[in-house]
Design goal:
Elements lengths: L68 H14 L10 H10 L5 E3 L9 H14 L5 E4 L20 H12 L5 E4 L7 H4 L2 H15 L5 E5 L8 H10 L7 E4 L7 H13 L5 E5 L24 E2 L6 E5 L22 H10 L3
Parallel strand pairs: 1-2, 2-3, 3-4, 4-5, 5-6, 6-8
Antiparallel strand pairs: 7-8
Helix pairs in contact: 1-2, 3-4, 4-6, 7-8
């Protein structure tokens, strides 16, 4: 998926591609707090140690998807290490890096092309069951809104009639079970470019209403610090019903530094009734170079962690699984496809 304001004005010229099967990925545990070298942590602000912590994520351990593309790549690399050997051999440096990536929680992307209305509830239920068995909470990205990505590199989505039915199937699987939901990356921030602001707001508001009856902790996508002005993004979020959710997510699939995103998040929070937020830190260890699609020289960001400093930031998460392509740009494969060169570069630049 693509979540970059820098494409505005040029993205219309991009040939629409069909979204490939998107690999699963993310969720982060508050217990995984070791920072990755060369990355920025959002923690450390002054707080009142006696102040109550308003964070529903506190104390949760997040689910690591054993079927993620990182996990499959790690298994394939290990098999190559063992090829032709009659005895156990030490894993290669590549396998060690991929094993570490696979062990880091990352969000699970629900896309209708992979999980249609007829089967998505079963997929979500199976994941919830597996997570519960291990005492963990899964994080899902719901990504199926009509005219998704304005027909650009992550084009696709459902029809206006089918979308609410699909969302209802996902929400029904949650019922009273614990989960985190990042709702429709890019949908609101791209609405002006797509030319369907009112229609898009109504679609997202409908999804918000659907998920509000569950126990899921929901964050609407709120763009990022170098896209729409906070006042414009706040208006879209308010109209889409952010008051019925926990808050918003920033920097999804982007590379902006945590410092910039936190400043943006706090401003956006002040314009949306004090809503809380999460930041995607999966690939922002060296910040952004201004490119949104497979930029070179980037690094993994801080490991997923729950933030308990009494501010509006709830957590730093890896929403976009590192190693999955942004699209057919800068030498990358189709959006959502595993790209080993990218995974290894991100890890190497982070000092792994």
């Amino acid at each position: 998926m693509t979540s970059k304001g820098s494409r505005i004005g040029v993205a219309i010229a991009i040939v629409a591609l069909t979204l490939p099967i998107v690999a699963l990925g993310v969720v982060f545990t508050g217990l995984v707090s070791t920072p990755i070298p060369a990355s920025e942590s959002a923690s450390g602000s002054e707080t009142d140690p006696g102040a109550p912590i308003d964070n529903p994520l506190q104390g949760q351990t997040f689910y690591v998807d054993p079927e993620s593309l990182a996990a499959k790549a790690a298994a394939a690399s290990a098999a190559t290490d063992q090829s032709g050997s009659d005895s156990t051999v030490a894993p290669s440096a590549q396998t060690e890096v991929l094993d570490k990536l696979a062990a880091t929680p990352a969000a699970i992307w629900l896309v209708p092309e992979r999980y249609p209305t007829e089967t998505v509830a079963a997929t979500v239920t199976a994941t919830l069951d597996a997570a519960a068995a291990s005492g963990q909470t899964p994080v899902f990205v719901v990504y199926g809104v009509p005219n998704r990505d304005c027909g650009n590199l992550s084009s696709g989505g459902l029809t206006a009639a089918e979308y609410p039915l699909w969302a209802a199937q996902i929400a029904g699987a949650f019922a009273d079970r614990s989960a985190i939901v990042i709702l429709e990356p890019d949908a609101l921030a791209l609405a002006t470019q797509c030319g369907n602001v009112d229609e898009r707001i109504a679609q997202i508001k409908g999804a918000v209403d659907t998920f509000s009856s569950t126990q899921a902790v929901v964050y609407l996508d709120g763009g990022h610090s170098t896209w729409l002005p906070a006042t414009q993004m706040a208006d879209l979020l308010n109209r889409a019903g952010i008051a019925e959710t926990r808050g918003f997510a920033t920097n999804v699939s982007n590379y902006n530094s945590t410092v910039k995103e936190r400043a943006y998040g706090e401003k956006l929070s002040s314009l949306t009734g004090g809503s809380h937020y999460v930041i995607d830190t999966g690939r922002n260890g060296k910040g952004s170079n201004g490119e949104w699609c497979n930029p070179s020289g980037r690094a993994l960001g801080v490991a997923p962690t729950v933030v308990t400093d009494a501010g509006h930031l709830d957590a730093e998460l890896w929403v976009k699984p590192p190693g999955e392509s942004d699209g057919t740009c800068n030498g990358g494969p189709a959006a959502g496809t595993w790209w080993p060169e990218s995974a290894l570069e991100l890890a190497d630049n982070a000092g792994w």
